[in-house]
Amino acid sequence: MLFPSTLLPLQDGIEDLLSSSPQLPDWSTYAAVAFGGLAGAAFAARRGFDFIGVLGLAVAQGLGGLLLASILLQTGTPFVLTDGWYLVIVTVAGIVGFFFAGLIARAVQSAILFDALSLGLLCAVGTNMAMRSGLNNPPAVFIGVVTAVGGMILRDVLAGRAPEVLRPGIFIAFAALVGAIVFVVLVDIGATRTFAQFVTVVVVTALRFLSVRFHWATREAKDFSDRVWRLWGRKPADALDPVTGHNDKVR
Description:
Blueprint: H1 8-19, H2 26-46, H3 51-73, H4 79-82, H5 85-99, H6 101-106, H7 108-132, H8 137-158, H9 173-188, H10 193-213, H11 225-233
Helix pairs in contact: 2-3, 2-5, 2-7, 3-5, 3-7, 3-8, 7-8, 7-9, 7-10, 8-9, 9-10
């Protein structure tokens, strides 16, 4: 026998470690939900929602993206429902947002910080979930973006407004897209998932803050149909004779 019986547990542990998919620390998902819940609560509190409204939008933004990712990946019952701590975290976030609405309203930058951190963490968590499910890079990036912005879309729908991430404005979905691409590239070149998550959060948060600071924004769609139609419908000019410089075409 290659391994003595006393080393068999160690051998089994090494095989389990090598065969398992790398994953992010559990605290990162809890942190993403906490920051998302605080951002949703701040959003509702600044707009005068009552307690149920603040709590509902905290749950929507904190858990919406993860719920949507679990549905798309068909992983069974979403883990944010099987682990009761997620609901506890967003409930506490909603309570904090409701009773400290005045502080949040006077500290809009804090709300942006919660929003940016949640965006980066959820982006990394969603991308990692997709990669561990066996998806290749493009679908993993898509799932990462959906996880990052899904809660914001649900929050805006419940608040009765057009989703902010779908309208021209400061970087939100674009920042998540860049972050998801950064995550898959780092993992592909051999970086650990924890390091890739850290870099993703830094990149997404920086893009979010810089877009607010310097007014970087996406633009609305522009229609070039008329220009293309005029160009396509225009008759080609007759070529000039290279010697005489005149149009000598026989008609």
